[in-house]
Amino acid sequence: MKINKRKFFRWVKLLLLIYALVGLVLYYFQDKFLFHPKKLSSDHVFKFDQPFEEINIGFNEEDTMNLVKFFPNDSIRKGVIVYYHGNMENIEHYASFAKPFTKAGYEVWMEDYPGFGKSRGELSEENLYSQAIEVKRMADAKYSSDSIILYGKSLGTGIAAYVASNSKAKMLILETPYYSIPALFSAYAFIYPTGRMSTYKIPTHTYLEDVAYPVIIFHGTNDGVIPYRCAEKLKKVLKKGDAFITMPGADHQNINQQEIYFHSIDSLLR
Question: How far apart are CA 24 and CA 12, in angstroms?
């Protein structure tokens, strides 16, 4: 069969053009793929069905962090869960996830990232880290390290791992984590050099190597957002005493609805 060289090279050029165009879209719009914030006006009134306190922390003229503290009904507090949420909306979207912890006697502190909810300022990896560390410092001022649990959900897992690698706590719990942001992008766009293209790195695996206290990971086998294989690679950096809890059939959204999750959390909080 004779191949028309001119037609062949036209197809090659077209494929290369499509490859380049898609790559440019991925590069310049990666923030749109990674973050899905929902802004709230500064005078927005939160209404939660559990006791809470709202705090606004100003870092400079541009950067302001909104923090909500959820409290148990009992005046006796066992400690605090410093909760770093996912890439969706704002604290209102995640508030219900605090209930298992407040019922167990823990405060739950949630911050909104820059551009999420009432938080303002530049959304950057550096700001994600620095503001997350500030919340941990506030927790340190009120509680001893053995009464502080760091919790990361989805996007927040890498941020929580960074904080854990730089501070003391009782344990680190990660729900649906990723190996790194470039590795996560690679799961969707494996034909591109995601390591070079990714503006955000958040190398969760690197940070976990420096965490001296227990690390507990929950991940579902049917996760369509952060594929199980992307989290499974974290097993190789876990130390003795850490746990990777596989949840068969669970997806990205229903981890906290699984019976094994409730039993595990209940056991950990005791």
Answer: 18
* pTM for this entry: 0.90
Distance set, CA 62 to CA 38, 39, 88, 138 (Å): 18, 15, 22, 21
Per the rule left: phi > 0, alpha: psi between -120 and 50, beta: everything else, 232 is: alpha
pLDDT tens-digit profile of 18-59?
Answer: 766 766 666 666 778 788 999 999 999 999 999 999 999 988
26 and 150 together in one domain:
no
* Domain that includes residue 237, residue range: 35-269
Say yes or no to pLDDT of 2 above 80. Answer: no
For residues 244 and 175, the answer to whether their CB atoms sit within 8 Å is no
Q: Report the alpha-carbon distance of residue 252 to residue 110 in Å, rounded.
A: 20
Q: What is the DSSP letter of 164?
A: H
Q: Residue 97: count other Cβ atoms within 10 Å of its Cβ.
A: 20
Q: Are residues 242 and 143 in the same domain?
A: yes
